[in-house]
Amino acid sequence: MKNLDTTTIRVPTFDAAELDATTIHVATVPSVRPAGLVRRVAIAATLCALVATIAVTWLAASPVSAGPGKPRPAPSHKVVTPPPAPAPAATDDARHAPPTKRAPAKPRQVTGKLNLNNATVAQLTLLPGVGPSKAERVVAWRTKNGGFKRIADLRKVRGFGYKTVQKLEPYLDVKGETTLAAK
Quick one: 110-182 is in which CATH superfamily? Predict the structure, then answer.
């Protein structure tokens, strides 16, 4: 019994032959309060309070931020719908017409091959999904790194991921003539 405290008690005996005290050792159980358990409970209670504070703050926050230094409007729990927009007046002037959504652009139809190592920005923009900024990045990468050794090296250029390279691969080459032309 390693972890038990012992207390010595002297108890008088009533034996007629001997009238002295006998020593008895009594084992007592110490008051065990695991410090780790108390610490864990305190940490759990603190985390619960933190989560509750965050949840209340988040739920009470206004959906529109007023910006730094400006007071936020009081949160309202009512759903506010904007008034319906007035019907546009019939005018012939296109400047006053409401903006319309554009139809998605059709991919450019091209035929032939494009050599990545000697193509110009104008030739690169003929590729579907490649605009002037991506074309300039390809030329800059080619100039900096000494050219493309394989088509997959195009993935090293910012803006050209796996799917884009897979889509463009039928039109690309790293050697030979550029024969790319719009249909």
Answer: Photosystem II 12 kDa extrinsic protein (1.10.150.320)
